[in-house]
Amino acid sequence: MAARITRLRPWAQLRRCGLAGSRRYSSAGYPGVPLSTPLPHLPRPTYATVDGHDKHETRITVLENGLRVASQDKFGQFCTVGVLVNAGSRHEVTFPSGISHFLEKLAFSSTAQFGSKDEILRTLEKHGGICDCQSSRDTTMFAVSAEVKGLESVIDLLADVVLQPRLTDEELEMTRMAIRFELEDLQMRPDPEPLLTEMIHAAAYRDNTVGLPRFCPTGNIEKVDQKLIHTFLRNYYTPDRMVLAGVGVDHDQLVECARKYLMGVTPVWGLGKPTDVDQSVSQYTGGIIKVEKDMTDVSLGPTPIPELTHIMIGLESCSFLEEDFIPFAVLNMMMGGGGSFSAGGPGKGMFTRLYLNVLNRHHWMYNATAYHHSYEDTGLLCIHASADPRQVREMVEIITREFILMAGSVGEMELERAKTQLQSMLMMNLESRPVIFEDVGRQVLATGTRKLPLELCRLIGEVTANDIKRVTAKMLRSKPAVTALGDLSDLPTYEHIQQALTSKDGRLPRIYRLFRNDRSIKKSELYSVHN
After folding, report:
1. Nearest of 427, 439, 368, 432 to residue 401 by alpha carbon
2. What is the DSSP string of 215-282?
């Protein structure tokens, strides 16, 4: 006999699931329940209050061993805390490149207190926590987001992860496999931006500081072992190069936890005095790096991607410690740009120069985007462009012309739009707790203090058109850094690109433009005519 299906009314379904109380709570039996009455069996809510104390202030304490503890108030029951270390790929000049890449992959593995990564994740799960580690060219971050009431357990875990990693042979071998896979993925992915960023740094700062590889080179994968990592950690993972940052935590409690778990602890690599700390300052060199690559096989799922050649041209800007950093940030926002597939919308920057002057006027351009990379002692402003290999000459000329136009007149409306968009983006990003954590940690690590968002917005608002012209004129005096990826048969020489950036209109040499549409002339013959 077929099973009988009974359709229950919604209230009956709640009663069967145990989710409804007695009938006296129904609207018919008890109609006068006020909304101000607390719900049964739920914790009493805590509401934010406004008082005379400035809750936006970042509090900083320097401990006896040099460790800096920084905190920022933020209402809520969750917090983000972590340790930032002044160590990255730029500090590997006397080491085989790739150690920071290994440390990023090895983070939150087994430690002296936790036998495996699973134990760490189970401990964090008790407090609703997640963890992450990211290494860049100048900083390594270990971060955890969890409930505030589990702060002490989280700091205990972080101290163990940073100072007591086991680095077993099995973990090292698994990391080698993960790095090999990541390097292969970089070569295969349709988006070449990470690869081009790596190449433009190598061209701009050849064999020094931020120009050293961020990803472990294939030839160094087998060279990195526990002994080498311990030597690196002994030099760079010292308290005076660390910041313990927290957002949404009580500062006094954070300082107390730091004293308890991060002071007087002997790290697994010992207490030997650092002997090989790199203090070198970045040396901008400029130059070109070209990689011939067949881009015809690149595809994203069943949809083939057009064969493209990617160009990135950069010039030296300034460090984030200089006053010109804010005008450069406004200039980068004013240039903007993106891909030709963007549908636009609020905040997309469709009125930026690279959209108006490049993507809207040249239908064959697939991408034109400005980037600004800034570090403690240098900076790099660059433009990435993509087009069909047959249009490479025109693409390079268009990009060099945009660099020259940066030093020209700046419209009042476009400047105000760029400043407003930068202020808006800054404030929206700082609504996120992890972003606040990174901002607090990086500023305190680099300067020992933190500029508050309102002060940054004020500095952005004070940028004038003359500031844009001044920083652009200074930038254009540097040698260009150029990278190219794909079919480079029609790529102009580095000398021709350099001449275009020093000309009045950003155009390539006249003899080059005269024959650029004549494919029967060999490039070598063309260059000999010019010379």
Report:
1. 368
2. SPPGGGTTT--HHHHHHHHHHH--GGGEEEEEESS-HHHHHHHHHHHHSS---TT-SPPP-----PPP
The packing angle between helices 453-461 and 412-429, to 10°, is 170
| Distance from chain centroid for Cα 322 | 20
Contacts of residue 314, defined as CB under 8 A and 6 or more positions apart, other chains included, come to: 200, 203, 204, 380, 381, 382, 383, 480, 481, 482
> Do residues 177 and 295 make contact, with C-beta atoms less than 8 angstroms apart?
no
Count of alpha carbons within 13 angstroms of residue 190, beta-carbon side? 11
pLDDT at 17 over 60: no
Question: What are the pLDDT digits (tens) for 313-341?
Answer: 999 999 999 999 999 999 999 999 888 76
Tokens of 263: 């002071």
pLDDT classification of 44: cutoffs 50, 70, 90: confident
Rounded mean pLDDT, 81-110: 97
Q: What is the mean pLDDT of residues 132-139?
A: 96
What pLDDT shows up at residue 12? 47
What domain range includes position 376?
287-530
CA distance 250 to 259: 15
Q: Is residue 14 part of a domain?
A: no
SS (H, E, C) 51-91: CCCCCCCEEEEECCCCCEEEEECCCCCEEEEEEEECCCHHH
Predicted confidence band of residue 506 (pLDDT cuts 50, 70, 90): confident
pLDDT of residue 527: 40
Q: Does residue 489 sit in the same domain as residue 523?
A: yes
| 386's tokens | 């993509």
pLDDT digits (tens, 9 = 90+) for 407-456: 999 999 999 999 999 999 999 999 999 999 999 999 999 999 999 999 99
The answer to whether the CB of 465 falls within 8 A of the CB of 264 is: no
Q: What is the CATH number of the domain that holds 145?
A: 3.30.830.10
- CA 336 and chain centroid, separation: 17
Q: Within this chain, do residues 233 and 358 fall inside the same structural domain, yes or no?
A: no
At 414, phi and psi to the nearest 5? -70, -35
Beta carbons of 529 and 512 less than 8 angstroms apart: no
CA angle at 61 for the pair 66 and 48, rounded to the nearest 5°:
150
349 and 486 both lie in a single domain? yes
Burial (CB < 10 A; 0-12, 13-18, 19+), residue 101, is: buried
This prediction's pTM: 0.86
Cα separation values, 156 from 80, 153, 192, 520, Å: 14, 5, 40, 70
